[in-house]
Specification:
Blueprint: H1 2-12, H2 24-32, E1 39-40, H3 43-48, E2 53-60, E3 66-67, E4 69-74, E5 89-92, H4 98-110, H5 115-118, E6 121-124, H6 128-137, E7 142-146, H7 147-156, H8 158-161, E8 164-169, E9 173-174, E10 178-181, H9 188-198, H10 204-213, E11 217-219, H11 227-239
Helix pairs in contact: 1-9, 1-10, 4-11
Length: 240
């Protein structure tokens, strides 16, 4: 995003390159290997690689660094409980996504179930908007999606999102954070990045970026913010 790169370059005082990859795994691997100074990642890989990563900041949405996972289905489908999705073709976002995979996987595990036994078939779309598109088009009968993405996409593409409905909202969970390799702890560039992110809402160019992202700003975060996600990882691991 050009606006974000321009803001960070000015705020940090040196050129910033933004890198994107198709999957969460690719970005996480680059980050843990120290090939990136920082990355905006999901809470699930943060928990998995917590010993290798430091938190830089977390987005604030509606006043808190929290979001939810939604289970969605077609808008005209009369389902009111997650149990009604049994036997569906189900769309997940990414195998390393908290809201687009882990939350649903943990919900099933808590009830003695696995995706392959509950759903008729599952597939990954590698994008939350793609999950919405899959359900809206009928390619999938239900899907697991980031609630922030669903809500923001509804503002921007109501004709698409209104073809789907929310069947279940998860509890509130730590919003996907910006993290850096622990090997770079003390690096002044990371400190400048953190300052730039947490001051974004106080600068005109920063506010333009936040408006596009529909975020309030970025705040300093503690690892405990992701304890609920860590508990879901443990639930899935114990269930096998």
């Amino acid at each position: 995003m050009a606006l974000l790169r321009a803001y960070l370059t000015e705020a940090i005082g040196e050129p910033v390159e933004l890198v994107s990859r198709r999957t969460y795994q690719e970005i996480t691997a680059l980050l843990v290997a120290g090939q990136l100074h920082a990355a905006w990642i999901c809470g699930y890989p943060y928990v998995q690689f917590k010993s290798d990563l430091d938190l830089v900041a977390a987005p604030s949405w509606h006043g808190k660094p929290l979001y939810q996972s939604y289970l969605i289905a077609a808008a005209d489908r009369p389902v009111d409980r997650w149990e009604d999705l049994k036997g569906d073709i189900h769309a997940f976002s990414d195998p390393d996504s908290n809201s687009g995979f882990l939350v649903t996987r943990a919900l099933l595990a808590e009830n003695g179930l696995k995706p392959e036994g509950f759903f008729a078939r599952t597939f990954y779309t590698y994008g939350h908007r793609n999950v919405i598109r899959a359900v809206a088009s009928g390619l999938a009968q239900s899907g697991s999606v980031d609630g922030y993405v669903w809500d923001v996409t509804r503002e921007m593409e109501p004709d698409l999102v209104n073809q789907t409905r929310i069947v279940r909202r998860s509890e509130w969970l730590g919003f996907p954070p910006v993290a850096s390799p622990r090997a770079l702890a003390g690096d002044p560039r990371i400190a400048r990045l953190k300052a730039a992110l947490t001051a974004m809402d106080r600068h005109e160019e920063g506010r333009k970026v936040l408006a596009l992202l529909r975020l309030d700003g970025f705040v300093a975060a503690e690892p405990a913010l992701f304890d609920t996600i860590a508990a879901k990882v443990d639930t899935v691991r114990r269930f096998g």
